[in-house]
Amino acid sequence: MLGVLVLGGALALQPDLAGIPLNQVIVSGDSMTPTFESGDIVLTHRRNTYPLGAVVAYRAPAEASRGPLVIHRIVAGDARRGYIFQGDNRDPWQVTPEHVLGEASLRVPKAGAAFTFLREPIEFAALAAAVSLFFVMRRQEEAD
Predict the structure, then answer these.
(1) How far apart, in whole angstroms, are the C-alpha atoms of residue 15 and residue 41?
(2) pLDDT by residue (tens digit) across 86-103?
(3) How far apart are alpha carbons 37 and 17 in whole angstroms?
(4) In contact, 134 and 78? CB cutoff 8 Å
C-alpha cells in the first residue's frame, strides 16, 4: 500500500518518469488571472502545433526575469516562425517553438502549495517517513 502511495506521488510530481508526455506547471503570480490563479497546478501536453488562443507552457528565454517556466496564451505566430505569448494580464513575449513545453490540458486549483512542499527532498522524505511510521504502528497494533 505504501509503495503504491509513494509511486503515485512520484508520478504526480514527475509524470515524465513513467514516459507520460505531460509536464506540470505550478502557477505563480497573477499574469493569467482569472484563467489561472497563483498556486494552481496546470498539466500540459506537447503538440506539433498550437492554435491561436491556446494556453501554453514554455521555457522563458535566459534574459527573462519571470522564472524558468511560464504559462501564457498564444496571441500570434505559428510553429514555423515562433509564437507571440501574452498573459491575460501582461505584455506580449515572442518565443521560439523549441522552448514550448505543451498546451494546458488540466487545472488543479490551489494544489501547487502541496506539490511545491513535496518537491523538496527533505520534506518529501519526512512525509514518507511519517506515512511509513503510521503503517508500521498500525500493523503492530493489529498484531497485538
Answers:
(1) 13
(2) 988 877 878 878 888 888
(3) 27
(4) no
